[in-house]
């Protein structure tokens, strides 16, 4: 798109649905293929239009609310975007945020204006913490936020496995040893118990508690189910489970992606008392086998830098690390 760098820039509230197309173009310029106008619109349909932010009995921000702004030049071209938001299940006091600026307009104070607006909105609602993310592959993104009082909470990066080069037979003993130890490996599709999805939710809640990549609590069951088992890109036979007796103790799950031949490992978690026994690796091997049978040539996932056990598993399977992002936090109130 043709842009005039000398244009006067202003912030205004996002217009729905008028801004969908331009916002999509901006986001995809920064991170190609990251979104569509349809997906933004669909997400908006799921979110209440009326804010109900309030302070709870402990004096911490609760409820739902958000603000969204765009930076626009005098020709009406959107060259920046920012949003701050809160969902009811997020830890009391916390607000999330996202922001970005067109590459041609960085270092001109636009990002600072957007971030200042989001922080002012957070302070007006007496938030305790403002969280966000910055990409580790965008030059100067981390110093930009550190100079404005943010600190790094986590570094999460992508990993990629070339399935055309993967030798599944090399790891056959790993799966067999887990089975011989009395652990059953199956899939969600193979279980008929009505309560299985509830048990799976409880497993994810428990395993997320000490996952360095997990920031806030999981949403309530119905919302979690929409996110964890979306009809568009999940299958019950791609939810690989480990069971000890009648107890669900581990999970690893695949998603399809918009890229043909590429699948994504959405989540892997093992109950604390069962870790170190090769169960996570066995589940991931089952998922790799399923991905190969489905015709995939690449398997992707992501992992937090400090999650040493999962890093070890992924590297041992041949995953190669790629770009990622920093999760950043700024304390606004004690």
UniProtKB/TrEMBL annotation:
Source organism, top-level taxon: Bacteria
Matching InterPro entries: Acyl_CoA_acyltransferase (IPR016181), Bact_Acetyltransf (IPR050832), GNAT_dom (IPR000182)
Record bears the keyword Hydrolase: no
Membrane-crossing segments per the record: none
Keyword check for Transferase: yes
Keywords for this protein: Acyltransferase, Transferase
Identification of the protein by name: GNAT family N-acetyltransferase
Stretches assigned to the N-acetyltransferase domain: 9-173, 190-334
UniProt organism field: Mesobacillus selenatarsenatis
Coiled-coil portions: none
């Amino acid at each position: 798109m043709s842009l005039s760098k000398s244009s006067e820039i202003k912030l205004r509230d996002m217009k729905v649905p008028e801004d969908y197309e331009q916002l999509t173009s901006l986001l995809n310029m920064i991170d190609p293929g990251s979104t569509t106008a349809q997906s933004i619109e669909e997400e908006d349909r799921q979110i209440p239009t009326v804010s109900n932010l309030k302070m709870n009995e402990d004096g911490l921000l609760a409820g739902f609310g958000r603000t969204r702004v765009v930076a626009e030049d005098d020709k009406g071209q959107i060259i920046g975007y920012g949003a701050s938001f809160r969902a009811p299940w997020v830890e009391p006091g916390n607000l999330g945020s996202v922001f970005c600026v067109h590459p041609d307009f960085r270092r001109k104070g636009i990002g600072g204006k957007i971030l200042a607006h989001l922080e002012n909105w957070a302070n007006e609602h007496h938030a305790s913490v403002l969280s966000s993310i910055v990409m580790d592959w965008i030059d100067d993104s981390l110093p930009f936020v550190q100079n404005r009082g943010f600190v790094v909470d986590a570094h999460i990066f992508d990993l990629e496995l070339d399935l055309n080069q993967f030798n599944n037979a090399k790891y056959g003993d790993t799966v067999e040893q887990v089975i011989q130890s009395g652990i059953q490996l199956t899939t969600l599709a193979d279980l008929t118990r009505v309560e299985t999805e509830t048990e799976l939710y409880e497993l994810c809640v428990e395993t997320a508690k000490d996952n360095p990549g997990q920031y806030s609590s999981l949403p309530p069951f119905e919302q979690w189910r929409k996110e964890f088992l979306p009809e568009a890109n999940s299958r019950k036979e791609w939810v690989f489970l480990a069971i000890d007796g009648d107890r669900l103790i581990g999970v690893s799950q695949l998603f399809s992606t918009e890229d043909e031949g590429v699948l994504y490992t959405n989540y892997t978690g093992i109950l604390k008392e069962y870790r170190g026994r090769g169960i996570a690796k066995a589940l991931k091997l089952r998922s790799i086998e399923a991905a190969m049978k489905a015709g995939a040539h690449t398997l992707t996932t992501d992992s937090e830098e400090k999650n040493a056990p999962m890093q070890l598993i992924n590297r041992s399977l041949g995953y190669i690390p790629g770009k990622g992002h920093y999760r950043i936090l700024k304390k606004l109130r004690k």
